[in-house]
Design a protein that fits this description.
mainly alpha, Arc Repressor Mutant, subunit A, elongated, 6 helices
């Protein structure tokens, strides 16, 4: 995903457009895309803000978000469950296929950590600041 233009460029584009120039002429002057200048002005008129909008998917809207409580319950029931086992349980119970890496990411986001004990057996626990 691309980076947003600096606040300085956004302010200069707005100042030039408010001084009576078109969005396209401001875009050419500051070497940005026409659509970028137009979107900056639309955002300014709509929200009053020049800051760029949030990029990416909103948190908590993934495919697994609806099953988070089930996943947490399964991990709390058996802390040493492997991600492939958890994926199988999710499929058996809810009919949803998910790669083990996605399950691991959602559990980390929920505050779980994976620690190995000296005997080599790992377990997931809800961790706090260490």
């Amino acid at each position: 995903m691309g980076k947003s233009h600096s606040q300085d460029i956004r302010e200069r584009v707005v100042a030039m457009v408010e001084a009576g120039h078109s969005c396209r002429s401001a875009a050419r002057r500051f070497a940005i895309g026409d659509s970028t200048a137009i979107r900056v002005m639309q955002r300014r008129r709509k929200t009053g803000s020049l800051s760029p909008p949030r990029q990416g998917r909103p948190p908590g809207s993934g495919k697994l978000a609806a099953y988070l409580s089930f996943l947490v319950a399964q991990v709390e029931l058996k802390p040493d469950v492997t991600m492939p086992e958890l994926a199988d349980k999710l499929y058996e119970k809810h009919g949803v296929r998910a790669p083990p890496s996605s399950l691991s990411r959602i559990l980390v986001a929920a505050g779980f950590t994976y620690k190995k004990s000296p005997d080599g057996i790992g377990a997931r626990t809800r961790g706090g600041p260490t």
